Amino acid sequence: MKTKKQYLLKQLTLGVGILMLALTGCTSIPAESPENLVGTSESGKASYYAMKYQFRTTASGERYNHFSSTAAHRTLPFGTKVRVTNIANNKSVVVKINDRGPFIDGRIIDLSRSAFSEIADLDLGIIEVTTEVVH
Predict the structure, then answer these.
(1) Dihedrals phi, psi of 30, to nearest 5 degrees
(2) Are 126 and 44 in contact, with CB atoms under 8 Å apart?
(3) Which helix (H) or strand (E) holds 17?
(4) Which of 52, 84, 99, 114 is geometrically suited to a Cys-Cys bond with 58, CB 3.0 to 4.6 A?
(5) For residue range 62-121, what is the model confidence (pLDDT) as tens digits?
(6) Pair 134, 41: CB distance under 8 Å
(7) pLDDT above 80: residue 16
(8) How far is Cα 2 from Cα 18, in angstroms, rounded to an integer?
(9) What are phi and psi of 122, to 5 degrees?
């Protein structure tokens, strides 16, 4: 009888562990920008994430992936879509906010490496941009 209880306890523990692991990989980030913020714009400096942040957990719970078009913003809700335009060449990219930052004065947004590379050379490091919340 004792071994059957131990077996059931192990099975229950394993099941709960798998469920917890599955739930931690889920995210509840909205798929759309809040309607009241659409059209909101900002101007300032943009930078991009260093490679050391690859696969680290962002403030939203998602894992950072430098191949995704994501960004960090201090106040915009997670899931907000933002068009970021490089003022120097007028190239733009749409990113999803999934992290908080940047925490350096004068910077308004931190882009993933791939998003930054779509609008500027990575060697620049920091560029002047405008941001606009889009649908």
Answers:
(1) -60, 150
(2) no
(3) helix 2-24
(4) 99
(5) 999 999 999 999 999 999 999 999 999 999 999 999 999 999 999 999 999 999 999 999
(6) no
(7) no
(8) 24
(9) -55, -30
Whose CA is closest to 92, among 64, 66, 71? 71
User: Which residue is it, tokens 């120097």?
Assistant: 88
Residue 13 CA to residue 18 CA, distance in Å, equals 9
pLDDT in tens, 40-54: 999 999 999 988 889
Contacts of 26 (CB under 8 A, 6+ apart): none
> Any residues with CB less than 8 A from the CB of 43 and at least 6 apart, and which?
87, 108, 128, 129, 130, 131
Taking CA atoms, 104 is separated from 9, 47, 56, in Å, by 50, 10, 20
